[in-house]
Amino acid sequence: MALDVRNLSKDYPTRSGSLSILRNVNLTLDRSESLAVMGPSGSGKSTFLHILGTLDRPSAGTVRLDDTDPFALAEADLAAFRNRRVGFVFQDHHLLPQCSVLENVLVPTLVSRDTRPADTEAYARQLLDRVGLGGRLDHRPAELSGGERQRVAVARALVLRPVLLLADEPTGNLDRTNARSVGELLLELHRQENTILVVVTHSLELARLFPRRMEMEDGTLVPV
Ligand SMILES: Nc1ncnc2c1ncn2[C@@H]1O[C@H](COP(=O)(O)OP(=O)(O)OP(=O)(O)O)[C@@H](O)[C@H]1O
Ligand SMILES: [Mg+2]
Known about the structure:
This protein is α/β, with parallel strands linked by helices. The chain has helices spanning 45-52, 75-85, 101-110, 117-130, 146-158, 176-193, 204-207; strands spanning 3-14, 17-29, 34-38, 60-65, 86-89, 164-168, 196-200, 213-217, 220-223. The protein has a single domain (3-223), classed as Rossmann fold. The chain has seven helices and nine strands; from the N terminus they run βββαβαβαααβαβαββ. Strands 5-6-7-3-8-9 form a six-stranded mixed beta sheet, sandwiched between helices. Strands 2-1-4 form a three-stranded antiparallel beta sheet, covered by helices on one side. Helix 6 (176-193) links the parallel strand 6 and strand 7. It is globular and about 50 Å long. It binds adenosine-5'-triphosphate and magnesium ion (MG). The site of adenosine-5'-triphosphate has 12 residues, from strand 1, strand 2 and helix 1.
């Protein structure tokens, strides 16, 4: 399996003792698979997604992505691994306001040593075309609609052809129509690019688009 999560636990130390957020979570996903994660606020969905994306470390258990244990890597290698293998889409687009749409999509390529600039720029343009923004390459984020900004964030997340595409409430700030189209876009690109897709959402409408759905409950993932 491309993604293999075993007995993953996460505790946060607090002044009043240890807070157990994730407890023995197990999950395997193949390259062709997608998953929607639902669950109440504070149940640990973002914590889980951050660990999958190596932004946070587990307290126990293992994550393997394409047979690599990222948490066994040295810090610099881990950063390169994250940049190269994982794409993130957040609720807020996190675009750089002073950069154009095309420049924003190219940001991950600036720190990647093993990509050819000409290839990645052509691919960035192609992705922007596919998300419907081929005519907005020179716009600044402030000159885009909310849905368009989120589409740029999707293109940016995919520009280095990650194994794993993670999205935390990607449609949380969008109206219903834009939410649906960004959700469909994520699924379409996941299928075309053969990238694992894990989306955290409170929206049942978005979750319903996914063939596989799970809920975070008492620190573990249960199928719904
Ligand atoms: N750095 C931290 N230190 C201590 N506790 C934390 C830390 N980060 C998160 N938590 C706690 O972990 C729990 C899970 O947080 P998380 O952000 O994963 O929830 P969530 O399921 O994504 O919620 P939401 O749907 O509101 O986004 C929360 O109770 C939160 O208070
Ligand atoms: Mg969250």
